[in-house]
Structure formats: C-alpha cells, structure tokens
C-alpha cells in the first residue's frame, strides 16, 4: 500500500518512519552476503543496493551492453526500492543475469517482465513501471548479453534459455527472493511483455500455466522462425537500405490509396484504419497506364511484388507467414523492413539461420529460398513457434490473459494474432464467449509496434510508452490485476493519444479499443475525436 497524498508530513519525517527506512535499507544490503534458492545452485550476487526515488541508473557504470543502451532508455526509478542483481546458472554452460526490484511499499504482488527481438537486454523501463505500482519486479537478460543472436552459435543451452527457460528461471528465483525478503509469499503473480516479450508470455501460458495468475501479452512474436523468414523474403524481394526495388515514393502512393479506399469504412476519416480486416483495397488503380492512375504509379512487376506482401505466404501447403495487413501505415512498415531506419529485421533475418539453423557464420541472404523458409519453420528449436492451441490447463487453474496487438504494427503483423486467436478457438472448440472467461484479445487501431502511431496508443501496456494513469480502464497492468483479483473482466481498453506522444504536451484524442471479434465503428459527429461516438459492433 502506498502513502496517500493526504498523510501529514510529520509522519514522513518522524523517527518511526526513518527507522523503517533504515531497517529496509539494512535488509536490502544484507542480501549481498548471498542468496540460496532450491533448484538453482551457484547463484551469485552482483549487487544489493538501496535506491531512493528519482535515482537514474548510469548504463556506462552498470556495464550494460551498448547494443542495449542504444534503444532502451534508463528512466528515473519512481520509488524507494531494493535493487538486487544476480547471476543465476540455468545449466552447466548457461546462466541468466537477473534483476529483482523490491519496492519499500510492496503491494504483495509479483510481476515478471519480458524481452525484445533476439535480445539479451533487461527492459529497465518496464521494471521501473511495475515497481511504481508496488510490484516486486524481475527482469533478466534472456540468457545472453546484447541484441545479437551470435551467442546461440553451438550453444543449445543458451538458445533454450532464450526460447523459454530464462523467463521461467527468473520468475521462480524472483518469487523465492521476494518471499525471503518480505517474510511472506506474494499473493498473486503477473507477467507483462511485448514483441518477443509477448511471445514469452504466451509460452508461459502454454507450457508453464502454473507460473502466473495473470498475463498481459502484446504484439507476440508467434512462429518466430517464420517471422524471420518473412523478413528475409522481404529483403530479397525488395532490397535493403535506400537501394530498394519499389521506392518509398511509390509505397507512399500505396499508403495514400489504401487510406482513400479504407479510412472511411469505420465511420471516421481520421487517418486511422480501425479494422484492417475490412480493408481490402484494389491496388490495381495504381497501375501505370490504367484509367485514372496517379502520377506516381506502379509498373506491372512492382504491383505484383507489392500485392504479394499482403497475402499469406504458403510453401508446400504450409503457411510461413500471414502476410501484412492493409493498415494505412505501409511506409513506416517498409522503411523498417528494408533497414532504412533500423537494422533489426534485416539483421535478424541473417542471424537466425547463421547462428541457429545452419550454425554457419558465412551464411547470408543470397542463399535464402522458399525451401529455406520451410526449414526454419519446421526446425522449431525448443518449440519456439509458441503455437499451442489448447490452453485448458491455464484456464482450469483460473488464470487470465489479455492479448493485444496494434493494427499498424510495422514489425509483427496483427494477422498473426488474429490467426492465433482463431487457432485457440478451434483447438479448444470454444466460441469467443467461452474464451472470454479467461482470454480476451484487443486489436488497437493506429498502434504501431508495442507503442507509437496515430491511434490512441497509450494504455499502460509498458514502461516505454506514456501511461494516462493507474485507472484499470486505461492501464493494462492494473487491468489484469482487477480481472484476476476482482473479477472485473475488460470489455474495452481505453487508449490515449498524446501530442507528439508526450504526456506533458496534452491529449489529442482518447478512444476505447474493442474486444475481438468486435470492430470499432464511429457514429458520432466530426472526424472521430468524440470518444462517445465510437461503438463496438459485431459484423
């Protein structure tokens, strides 16, 4: 329980309060003497330090891999807490680096955070975010350091950590430490993550259903090898960097035509496609020489290449990847996939086959073929595809999961999440009403990968995004708590779009996102900024 703002200031400066702080600090620093957890021999303590509110960690002093610090910000720590950093062996040839943050005002809850990409990066913003709500919080490096997959080469134990074991070990050890430190066990345990972190949450639900009482899993990287094959195919078909076969100018024409044909379908012309399932534009209108073709047009070959991207990719009867949704945000999607802004997708497309599939450091994208893609998908080390459809064990123990995905995701397309939901429905022979008892899925219009985008993209989904507040209506972490502990299942998720995605600059719009399979339809006045004008409709 946190102090309310109405508490007398004299309490905060009283000898009793000061003694409590000193006791907490002493107990924290005593952890440096060592930690023992059953089943995990050889745990070593790197540091045990009491940290006061508003302290900012210095990544250069911390020795954090520079490939992590280049994209993970180091936010001020929002509360007084005990920070414990450990090395936890997971086998004779592998270990994780685990951080456990134990807030002074503990809520009695435990939460684990996830990772991203191929990384080995502790997501400090997520640790800070969860700790601010009183959660005992853990995060780990997923068994290796940095964003590269090179650590997997000839190291199956390290790969197994990445696939599932690092998260499991971190949660088990973190829970035990929490009990040792506070003198009592947590009352409920949670997980939240996005991207690879979303996949990790689903991996736990599918294979370790006892691990968490509530899971928030965003933009999950289902069928990860197929996703990397999709990146490889895109690079081969379109090129990389600025030397690409269909120019950004022409992709801009594709985006504009998509919005022209689809933006109004939800009832509001606001630059946001609220339901990509309904958007099926006729791109032949961009064909050079056709009636009404724009000045920037597509040749027959370019049109064929572009249309191919939006269709499921099937090799020998097996879906490798679902295809890209028509989101009206195609330009940033392409810029990211060809590596104009960030090297992630093109690098992952090379590193996965190089360090995992073939274990050949000389492998490159010139060797990629459709049969290669099939091999990647079928190899599936440690069941990293994370595609099990029977969630009955998770359901039967009373656990809950909130699944969310941005419809303008430029890395992992929302069609993958749609396919997975339907896969669960078929596997469990369960209708959406049946699944609602434990599994709810929200499609978020205008949201890019994990955060950002033109839509109402902030809803307490991570420490990387602005959070409107701690009301469960607009904070997914607190929403899963309300569902697990209070039975308050979410019908909608309320998002906020801030000016320049900066909370300090004010609000552009708010919008409630609908529970699948409903779609968001505008029946209000104006261009869609009236939140009350939006309605969840089953079509």
TrEMBL record:
It is an enzyme of class 3 (hydrolase). GO terms for biological process: xylan catabolic process. Residues 1-18 form the signal peptide. The keyword Hydrolase applies. GO terms for molecular function: feruloyl esterase activity; metal ion binding. It comes from Melanomma pulvis-pyrius CBS 109.77. Belongs to the tannase family. This is Carboxylic ester hydrolase. It catalyses: feruloyl-polysaccharide + H2O = ferulate + polysaccharide. Pfam families: Tannase. Keywords: Calcium, Carbohydrate metabolism, Disulfide bond, Hydrolase, Metal-binding, Polysaccharide degradation, Serine esterase, Signal, Xylan degradation.
């Amino acid at each position: 329980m946190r102090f309310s703002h109405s508490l007398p200031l004299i309490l905060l400066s009283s000898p009793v309060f000061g003694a409590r702080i000193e006791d907490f600090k002493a107990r924290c620093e005593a952890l440096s003497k060592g930690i023992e957890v059953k089943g995990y021999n050889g745990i070593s303590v790197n540091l045990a330090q009491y940290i006061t509110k508003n302290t900012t960690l210095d990544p250069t002093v911390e020795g954090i891999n520079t490939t992590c610090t280049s994209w993970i910000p180091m936010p001020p720590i929002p509360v007084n807490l005990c920070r414990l950093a450990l090395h936890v062996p997971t086998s004779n040839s592998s270990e994780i680096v685990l951080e456990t943050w134990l807030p002074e005002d503990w809520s009695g809850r435990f939460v684990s955070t996830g990772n991203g990409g191929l990384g080995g990066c502790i997501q400090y913003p997520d640790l800070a975010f969860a700790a601010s709500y009183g959660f005992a919080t853990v995060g780990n490096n997923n068994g290796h350091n940095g964003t590269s997959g090179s650590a997997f080469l000839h190291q199956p134990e390290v790969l197994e950590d990445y696939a599932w074991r690092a998260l499991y070990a971190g949660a088990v050890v973190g829970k035990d430490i929490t009990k040792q430190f506070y003198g009592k066990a947590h009352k409920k345990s949670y997980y939240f993550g996005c991207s690879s972190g979303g996949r990790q949450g689903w991996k736990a639900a599918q294979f370790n259903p006892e691990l968490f009482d509530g899971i928030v899993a965003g933009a999950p990287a289902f069928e990860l090898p197929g996703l990397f094959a999709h990146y490889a195919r895109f690079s081969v078909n379109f090129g990389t960097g600025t030397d690409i076969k269909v120019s950004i100018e022409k992709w801009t024409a594709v985006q504009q035509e998509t919005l022209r044909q689809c933006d109004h379908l939800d009832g509001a012309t606001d630059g946001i496609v609220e339901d990509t399932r309904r958007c099926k534009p006729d791109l032949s209108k961009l064909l050079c020489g056709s009636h009404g073709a724009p000045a920037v047009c597509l040749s027959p070959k370019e049109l064929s290449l572009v249309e191919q991207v939006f269709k499921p990719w099937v090799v020998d009867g097996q879906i490798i990847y679902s295809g890209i949704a028509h989101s009206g945000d195609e330009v940033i999607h392409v810029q990211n996939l060809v590596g104009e802004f960030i090297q992630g997708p093109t690098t992952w497309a090379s590193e996965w086959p190089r360090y995992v599939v073939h274990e050949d450091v000389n492998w490159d994208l010139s060797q990629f073929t459709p049969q290669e893609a099939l091999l990647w998908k079928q190899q599936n080390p440690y069941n990293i595809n994370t595609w099990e459809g029977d969630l009955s064990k998770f359901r039967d123990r009373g656990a809950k999961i909130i699944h969310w995905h941005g419809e303008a995701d430029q890395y992992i397309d929302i069609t993958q999440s749609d396919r997975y939901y339907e896969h669960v429905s078929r596997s469990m022979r369960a209708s959406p009403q049946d699944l609602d008892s434990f599994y709810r899925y929200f499609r978020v219009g205008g949201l890019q990968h994990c955060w950002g985008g033109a839509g109402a993209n902030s809803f307490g989904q991570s420490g990387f995004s602005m959070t409107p507040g701690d009301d469960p209506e607009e904070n997914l972490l607190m929403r899963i708590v309300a569902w697990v502990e209070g039975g308050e299942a979410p019908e909608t998720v309320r998002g906020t779009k801030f000016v320049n995605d900066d909370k300090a600059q004010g609000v552009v719009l708010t919008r409630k996102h609908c529970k699948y399979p409903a779609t968001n339809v505008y029946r209000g006045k104006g261009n869609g900024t009236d939140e009350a004008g939006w309605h969840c409709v089953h079509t």
